[in-house]
Specification:
The complex is a heterodimer of chains A (442) and B (66). In chain A, strand 1 (116-120) and strand 2 form a beta hairpin. An 8-stranded mixed sheet of chain A has the order 6-5-4-3-2-1-14-15, with helices on one face. Chain A has helices spanning 11-19, 56-67, 70-100, 148-157, 173-176, 179-185, 201-212, 270-278, 301-307, 327-335, 343-346, 369-386, 424-429; strands at 116-120, 129-133, 136-140, 162-167, 187-192, 217-218, 225-228, 231-237, 252-256, 262-264, 287-289, 311-314, 339-342, 349-353, 358-360, 397-400, 406-407, 420-423, 433-434. Helices cover 31% and strands 18% of the residues of chain A. Chain A is built from 13 helices and 19 strands. Chain A is of the alpha/beta class and 442 residues long. Chain B has a 4-stranded antiparallel sheet with strand order 3-2-1-4, with no helix packed on it. The longest helix of chain B is centred in the last third of the chain and has 18 residues, at 46-63. Chain B is elongated. The chains are: A alpha/beta (442), B alpha+beta (66). The interface between A and B is medium-sized, with 36 and 24 residues.
Chain lengths: 442, 66
């Protein structure tokens, strides 16, 4: 059991949470540990189909595999077992949640500074974030199609009936998957989605659901600010009208609450990060939801330095087949001493802000971070000591590319195609100039 | 069977199946030039199957002693 969680002074909340003990078990099941790695087979999500309490919609979806050839069934059987174990394990996790993450009551007897809570709901390999501030709530993304019913019960168990905002960052299935279920289950005030199209049934189903409910969709306009209870949020992206990759359509949102801003980036990649910086937006935030599950296509050093977070949260499935989060991303975070919370390690994560400081209900990640961090710190120290000393610069290794004219730090995103180590003095001698993005030693 | 490319992640194309679940398809199985949103048809080629069966059977008949 994790101790030291700052329980906030809201007695009715605890009561409310205690009244609904059975609540959160399904949502934490992250699915994939079992199924992945198995190559071409069904991906990370298939195990989640076994989730209890499926809505009609999803039941229908879940039935199909049974109609397929027998081979499929036998293939899936072991996955079921393991998924079962997994969800048991997560049941324990979620009971922790119930204790540790008190829920704001719908009608607090008095109104003490209601805390802002940000739930990074564990949906395996996907994103799902619920923000609640007093009686206002907003959902950013809704995991994969099979997560829908669990997301709905998680939110309902918090006593929430109305979502002031539902935001779909972009139309990939690991972000909009369960959103139709959410829209069907709650009173939804405003839906924000980029006007980016997709051909999947998941996307079509979401649009039809919105249409059936007689709702309209608001396109995100960067710079626009919306109020959410005592908090507000500002749209920072997308800044272009068309992109090759759907990820870059991701709606990026900065949540402002007292002096504890959060930044949610969806799957925005380097292209969008650079545009945000070029627009001159204030991206500084205490908590950064790392873009694209920690993939190396996001979280450029320049963007990370501009955000300069104390905490990073990575929404990612355990044992996913995509190499998320990328080691490069983790070392960028470690180098800067940023505390990292990962849903694949600790399940659902709840961050609570009182407007001045932020506490988490889970422990930060320790995987490989400390060793990397100290190693990097040593390097940085050397650099600092040797600056201005031309002989010592021989010891510093920088990196060049086959065709470029700049030299780079080890982790610079420009090194993706080629990466040739070279001493700093030689690089300078040969006329290479320091990269403006990664700002290597000079 | 038709599957739709939802996205590309690492070495995989993530495809949406007809029941709206998703599965990983190695990129090597996806025709070059495939983009997000493209619909792929997966089908059995009956003629090619029959032809290969016939050819292998003939080869076997030459090789087994009985």
């Amino acid at each position: 059991m994790i101790t030291g969680f700052a329980i906030t002074p809201s007695p009715p909340d605890d009561q409310l949470a205690a009244e609904q003990p059975a609540s959160q078990q399904p949502i934490n099941q992250p699915d994939n540990i079992a199924v992945t790695e198995n190559n071409t087979e069904f991906s990370d999500n298939s195990a989640v189909k076994n989730a209890p309490e499926q809505s009609k919609d999803v039941e229908k979806a879940g039935e199909n595999p049974n109609k397929q050839e027998e081979v499929d069934l036998s293939d899936m059987a072991p996955a079921k077992d393991e998924a079962g174990q997994q969800s048991q394990q997560n049941e324990q996790d979620s009971s922790k949640n119930v204790e540790l993450a008190p829920v704001p009551a719908q009608q607090p007897p008095e109104k003490p500074a209601a805390n802002l809570k940000v739930h990074f709901i564990d949906v395996g390999q996907g994103d799902c974030i619920l923000i609640e501030d007093g009686t206002s709530a907003m959902l950013i993304d809704a995991g994969n199609p099979e997560n829908g019913p669990d997301i709905v019960s998680y939110i309902k168990n918090l006593g929430i009936e109305k979502l002031n905002f539902v935001l779909a960052t972009h139309p990939h299935a690991d972000h909009i998957g369960g959103m139709a279920d959410v829209i069907n289950a709650f009173d939804v005030e405003k839906i924000i989605m980029p006007k980016a199209t997709h051909t999947t049934r998941t996307f079509e189903n979401l649009l039809l659901t919105i249409q059936n409910k007689g709702l309209k969709i608001t396109a995100p306009i960067p710079g626009t600010e919306y109020k959410l209870g005592n908090a507000s949020f500002t749209i920072l992206a997308p800044n272009s009208s068309s992109y090759e990759d759907l990820n870059n359509y991701s709606v990026v949102v900065k949540l402002n609450y007292g002096s504890t801003p959060f930044l949610f980036t969806g799957d925005a990649e380097a292209t969008s990060e650079n545009e945000i910086l070029a627009r001159g937006y204030d991206v500084k935030a205490d908590v950064l939801k790392i873009g694209h599950h920690g993939s190396n296509s996001s979280t450029t050093e320049r963007f990370l330095d501009a955000v300069s977070p104390q905490y990073a949260v990575i929404c990612v499935g355990a044992g996913n087949s995509y190499g998320h989060p990328a080691p490069e991303t983790l070392s960028k975070l470690a180098e800067r001493g940023i505390k990292v919370y990962r849903t694949d390690e600790v399940g659902t994560i709840v961050a609570t802000s009182d407007g001045k400081s932020i506490s988490f209900n889970k422990q930060p990640s320790s995987v490989n971070i400390s060793s990397t961090a100290s190693e990097k710190t040593d390097k940085a120290d050397n650099t600092a000591v040797s600056s201005g000393n031309s002989t010592a610069s021989d010891d510093i290794i920088v990196y060049i590319t086959k065709t470029g004219s700049k030299y780079h730090r080890e982790n610079c995103s420009s090194l993706r195609s080629s990466r040739i180590p070279i001493s700093l003095s030689e690089a300078k001698q040969r006329g290479y100039e320091p990269c403006k993005i990664c700002k290597p030693p000079q | 069977m038709r599957v739709i490319i939802d996205r590309f992640e690492g070495d995989y194309a993530v495809v949406e199946l007809e029941d709206r679940s998703t599965a990983n398809l190695p990129r090597s199985l996806v025709p070059p030039g495939t983009k997000e949103g493209d619909v792929l048809v997966i089908e059995i080629d009956r003629n090619a199957t029959a032809e290969r069966k016939k050819r292998i059977r003939e080869l076997m008949e030459e090789l087994w002693e009985e």
